[in-house]
Specification:
Elements lengths: L2 H17 L2 E6 L5 H13 L3 E5 L1 H10 L16 E5 L5 H9 L7 E7 L2 E4 L4 H5 L4 H33 L1
Antiparallel strand pairs: 1-3, 1-4, 2-3, 4-5
Helix pairs in contact: 1-3
């Protein structure tokens, strides 16, 4: 790869980093080609983009990115790195967790989710437990509906007891 190609890759990575606030770094080394393809397929089905990147190029892109907090990801750039972008904050964590049942790979190196940094594979459960935007909206709606349902239920019960008395 010549200097021009490297510069172009770095610029593309900077654009992707600036456009996303849910970024995962994973280690897929030691996985067979068959397993890597299966992992990529699961990512594709869940609308998670995944690419393997050179650590040196990703480091330069992180240094040039708009968010200075991304610099905290740099120590995780060792070995093979798969870069994952998503719209749903917990999708990559769930994919990694479900895929590796019994295996040690893929492993979570680090993640940047909604301006928070998560370092290390030990954070996988915390990330998988994050609620997506739609899940949070659903919870708020159900919380808002429950008092209304109680009032309606009480009114129905009161109306039913008046009919029985008449």
């Amino acid at each position: 790869m010549n200097k021009t190609e490297k510069t172009q890759v770095i610029e593309e990575l900077v654009e992707q980093l600036n456009a996303n606030n849910k970024i995962y770094l994973a280690d897929c080394s030691t996985l067979t080609v068959e397993k890597v393809n299966a992992f990529r397929k699961q990512c594709f089905e869940k609308k998670v983009s995944i690419t393997v990147v050179k650590n040196t190029l990703l480091k330069k892109a992180i240094e040039r990115a708009n968010d200075s907090k991304l610099a905290e990801l740099i120590p995780a750039l060792k070995g093979e790195t798969a870069l994952m972008f998503t719209e749903v904050s917990n999708s990559p964590a769930k994919i990694i967790k479900n895929f590796r049942k019994g295996n040690q790979k893929p492993a979570l190196k680090a993640a940047y989710v909604e301006e928070m940094i998560f370092i290390g594979d030990a954070q996988l459960d915390a990330l998988a437990g994050l609620k997506s935007k739609n899940e949070l909206i659903g919870e708020v709606i159900s919380l808002l509906q429950s008092p209304i349902q109680r009032v309606l239920g009480a009114l129905e019960n009161k109306g039913g007891s008046e009919d029985a008395a008449a």
